[in-house]
Design goal:
By secondary structure, this protein is mainly alpha-helical.
Length: about 650
């Protein structure tokens, strides 16, 4: 089996190298190219998915790398041809020689922040291939396996997971498509692939934030400290990793700083290549998770306001560039644009109840106490200082204003129950946890700014108290490093243990999937007639994982709350499968879908769930042969009786006779 290090390293390389190649071919500056690499990689995946909606091709590492090389070659050829027609002294491929000392400091901050978060997560996983027992992990793991097995990156292909009977289903697939590539390269279990991708989230966010802050004029201390402090915030990435887990959403949040890095570049130099890069980044956000694209759009407003207020003469030219970016995004991410529009008009709605008052909600977000046993005092203290000194950080006012929008959405979703609030927050599933995570993108640099403010204050105090001490020994950057180390120590390693303990139960605790069930799935996968047919199952008892683990095809490959099945046949199977002996419709559906086995287990994703009605009383169904029995798991082989029995006879059997 591939080692954990190989899986993690493969994920990192596939995340960075394709995007770096595209950034280089576009002529982006080295720092911008590095910060934008992850979002451009997902932009390539979005483009491939768009092509796949029109032209069928196998999705695998070879075609992805070949496609990347082709894209880079075309970009370079077009740029060189254009330069021959319009000569310029600006180099086609900027190169900055040896990095400056400040660059190394920022790089160190990014690496330390990523490593801190990655270690916390790896310890929380217990093992890299442990399963998260919560809701969305089922879908994400089966989506990775489906794309890897079918080599189909068309977003519509994901309907096969749980919406095979409808045509309107849509879910962005770029996150899963990257996971499929990692699985193809390494052969690692799907759970290990997903968890390796999860370990990249804080690193992507820290890299993008550090280089964005550097680009907009932030002091080196702020740019370097932000990714380090980010690794300590519980709301992001940890709360959206153990809860849900909403992995594509978390990844999309992490990509937002890189999108703004490219958008700013597009509006600054106004080259067609940078507009194309920003458009690819926008398509990437749509392709990873639609709500993150909308989240970025909210921040665009204060970004443009701060850009335009002091120099309104740039408005017209900026609007032209924005149109170019938008057109590029639509062309490169067409199925995701149309899918997002369809979901916004007809998608499922969720209304989480209000849980606290306005004051408590504001206090929770500012003291970093949302859903936690106690506030994160040391980070909250830095955040408070950063807020008080915000007038000194004009360079990131627009970014903090974007964070204020996220904070506002958190407060109203946590404190109010109304149709207006539900409508306003529906793209984020009315989920305050997602808004708390989004706010961290602004809170982390604000805390880093607070760190610098304290360091400067300490520098002034020391200079006044010890005027004869050599000035170089009291530089604010050195004091900031000392303060950062002190915060790390006083907060028990930036709350690493607390974040690990908070995350670990989702991966190391009992839940819907048990070792007994995995062993039963392995037995079923070994049956010669199981691989080509379908398996009838309860969507809520852990059985959908048979696809991710062994490539089997469950009738329901994701969780379904009672009564939420989209198609008529799906509802019929869930409610009346036990009528297999007597119902011609059930028998026809079983034959048409080629259902060969039935898998029934006891664990559920939620403790208050019970067996779906159609899978009760199966021991008394003559068309089923029990072929596997272990405590908590039963497998039946479908063997239809020659003729249906008298109508509805089996439907009158006791529903309490559970296998």
């Amino acid at each position: 089996m591939t080692s954990d290090v190989a899986v993690i390293l493969t994920t990192l390389l596939l995340l960075l190298l394709p995007g770096l190649a595209v950034a280089g071919s576009l002529g982006l500056r080295p720092a911008t190219a590095l910060g934008a690499a992850p979002v451009l990689t997902f932009g390539l995946i979005a483009t491939a998915a768009t092509v796949a909606t029109f032209v069928s091709f196998p999705w695998n590492p070879a075609t992805f790398l070949l496609g990347t090389a082709l894209v880079c070659a075309v970009i370079v050829a077009v740029r060189l041809a254009w330069r021959r027609r319009r000569p310029t002294d600006v180099p086609a491929f900027p190169y900055r020689g040896r990095p400056a000392r400040n660059d190394w400091v920022i790089a160190a901050g990014v690496v330390v922040g990523w490593a801190t978060s990655a270690i916390v997560l790896l310890r929380a996983f217990g093992r890299l291939d442990n399963v998260n027992q919560d809701w969305d992990y089922v879908f994400h793991s089966n989506a990775v396996r489906l794309i890897a097995d079918t080599s189909d990156v068309d977003p519509a292909a994901l309907r096969a997971i749980n919406d095979w009977e409808v045509q309107s289903s849509f879910y962005p697939n770029a996150f899963s498509a990257l996971g499929a590539l990692v699985r193809d390269v390494t052969g690692a279990p799907v759970f290990a692939v997903l968890n390796a991708q999860t370990m990249m989230i804080a690193g992507i966010a820290g890299l993008g934030l550090a280089i964005l802050l550097r680009a907009i004029g932030a002091p080196t201390v702020v740019s370097a400290a932000t990714p380090v402090l980010l690794a300590g915030f519980t709301s992001f990435p940890y709360d959206v990793i153990w809860r849900g887990p909403v992995l594509p959403f978390a990844t999309g949040i992490a990509l937002i700083p890189a999108f703004f890095l490219l958008l700013r570049e597009a509006l600054t130099d106004r080259r067609p290549t940078t507009a194309l890069a920003a458009g690819a980044a926008a398509a990437a956000l749509l392709a990873v998770q639609t709500a993150t694209a909308l989240s970025a759009a909210l921040v665009v407003v204060p970004f443009l306001v701060q850009r335009w207020v002091p120099r309104g003469r740039t408005v017209v030219r900026d609007l032209v560039s924005l149109v170019s970016v938008g057109v590029s995004a639509v062309v490169l991410g067409l199925p995701f644009v149309s899918g997002a529009l369809g979901v916004s008009s007809s998608g499922a709605r969720v209304d989480w109840p209000a849980v606290e008052g306005v004051g408590q909600a504001i206090g929770d977000i500012l003291t970093l106490n949302h859903g936690a046993a106690s506030p994160q005092y040391w980070l909250a203290g830095l955040l408070g200082v950063g807020l008080l000194a915000l007038p000194q950080a004009r360079y990131m006012w627009w970014w903090i204003a974007g964070g204020a929008i996220a904070v506002t959405l958190f407060v109203i979703s946590a404190a109010f129950d109304s149709t207006v609030v539900e409508d306003l927050t529906s793209p984020w599933w009315n989920d305050r946890w997602r808004f708390a995570a989004l706010a961290v993108l602004a809170l982390a640099p604000l805390a880093a700014s607070g760190l610098l403010v304290i360091a400067r204050g300490a520098d002034r105090a020391l200079s006044s108290a010890l005027p004869r001490v050599r000035r170089a020994a009291m530089r604010p950057s050195l004091l900031a490093l000392v303060l950062l180390v002190a915060v790390v120590l006083l907060s028990n390693g930036l709350y690493t243990r607390a974040n690990e303990v908070r995350t670990a139960p989702a991966y190391q605790g009992p839940g819907q999937l048990s070792a007994v069930e995995v062993e039963a799935m392995r037995w079923l996968a070994d049956q010669p007639d199981a691989e080509d047919g379908w398996v009838m199952n309860d969507p809520n008892d852990g059985s959908p994982y048979m696809q991710a683990l062994f490539g089997l095809t469950p009738a329901f490959a994701h969780i379904l709350p009672p009564g939420m099945a989209a198609g008529r046949t799906q509802r019929m199977l869930l409610e009346h499968f036990h009528c297999l002996d007597s119902s011609p419709e059930i028998r026809d559906a079983v034959e048409e879908l080629d259902i060969r086995y039935v898998f029934v287990a006891r664990g559920y994703v939620r403790a208050d769930m019970t067996r779906t009605p159609g899978l009760t009383g199966l021991l008394q169904v003559d068309s089923l042969e029990r072929v596997y029995q272990r405590p908590g798991v039963t497998i039946f082989r479908v063997a239809l009786t020659d003729e249906p029995t008298e109508q509805d006879r089996e439907c009158e059997l006791s529903r309490n006779d559970n296998p």
